[in-house]
Amino acid sequence: MDMHKELLPTYEISFYKDFTCRAGRCEETCCRGWKVSVDDEALKKYKSLHSVTGLRIRLALLGRKDGCFDTSYRACPFFNKEDLCGIQLKYGEDYIPEICRTYPRLNRNYGFMQEKWLDLSCIEAAELFLSKGSGFCMTAIEAEEAYESEYSNDDRDFLRELIKSRQEVVRYLDESLFSKKEDLDRAFQALLSFSLAAEQGSIKNDYSYFQKKTADFYRGDGGKILFPFPMELFKEMICVNGFYHRSLFRQLPFLNKILQLFLSEFKDIGTSEGQEKWERLYNSYLEMDAQGEDIAKGPCPNGQGILRELVNYYSYSVWTDYLRSFEDYSFSKWLLRGMLAVNFFFLFSALLWQEQGDILRHEKAHVMSVLERRMHHNPTQEKKLMESLRKHVRK
Ligand code: SF4
């Protein structure tokens, strides 16, 4: 351990330490489908290995300008028949690249403080998150500085204001009642208006928008529907903007299976027929959920199962993304990004539920992890989806 690392005020997602990798039992392993970037320290160790494995590692990196093991279309070259890492088995955890050691634990350093959470593209992290219901938060601790800050903004007061306003957004989501889909649409409308006001205010150095309650930003002027997205918007994103791609058959077979369900249901039908079909699907999905909740537990104080789950998913994205406005003041980008993920999660869960007649928590975790991989770990793809969403909002 480096004894000279500074202690920094740190916010950590409350279930951060509960994570344990599924290793050989993982049905959506991170050893497949992604490039693995090899850091300088690992590279130095690999150069000193005088063994067949050492030679294999060096060969795997030969001629690769990006310094990565290529796992894009198949598994990492060191992923063995028992679904375990051959490098780790032979040389121990110290010899695997840093990204493999830390994933799905993520850390963001803002200079004055840092945050730690789990990336929901990992199926175990996603299931842990879903098992918590709304029982998670960021807990304040002191921890060693994990990485250097990549933020150039040194306005500590602005960061404090951002942290307070994030608290207000999360409080609003936690305390509001979500018993019908319109409640979530209303919350998204309010948050979009807030984010646009925040961007305008930042240009003029006016931070009065931070003092207002989130609910007060709801304009009630019938803005674009933000939940559930209309079917035409999904179709544009999936069929035109490349969310669906043939390579998913090998890269992410589970996501490919769900997208095939989508294509067979919606690809070849007209706008109004598609929208009606989508409304029938999501209404039945929500009705099934409401009945199940009532029988099993009675009504929830702040909303029913699926809607509350979606709100929690959105809250998680607020916890992890909102402070990124510290660097780029792009409040709407970070708040819309979560709405995108929530809508796709709703669509895919509903499709799987319709196909199977049921959907269990571990299946939802699987949906969440492949969705996060396709959406948030593919910058080109995410940019296209965000462009479509912004166009929809502006229309
Ligand atoms: S996806 Fe998560 S649980 Fe699965 S192997 Fe990777 S870190 Fe472990």
Could you characterize the architecture of this molecule?
This protein is an alpha+beta fold and 395 residues long. The chain folds into two domains: 31-102, no CATH class; 156-394, no CATH class. The protein contains 16 helices and six strands. The protein has helices at 40-47, 52-61, 86-91, 98-102, 123-131, 156-175, 181-203, 231-240, 248-251, 253-267, 271-297, 305-321, 325-328, 331-356, 361-376, 379-394, and strands at 7-13, 36-37, 68-69, 105-109, 114-118, 138-144. Strands 4-5-1-6 form a four-stranded mixed β-sheet, with no helix packed on it. It has a two-stranded antiparallel ribbon with strand order 2-3. A hairpin with a 4-residue loop joins strand 4 (105-109) and strand 5. Helix 5 crosses helix 15 (361-376) and helix 10 crosses helix 14. It starts with 6 loop residues before the first strand and ends with a helix. The model is unreliable at 294-303 (pLDDT under 50). Bound molecules: iron/sulfur cluster (SF4). Residues 21-23, 26, 28-30, 103-104, 122-124 line the site of iron/sulfur cluster.
**How many domains is the backbone divided into?**
2
Major β-sheet strand ordering: 4-5-1-6
Largest sheet: 4 strands, mixed
Number of helices: 16
Task: Name the poorly predicted regions.
Answer: 294-303
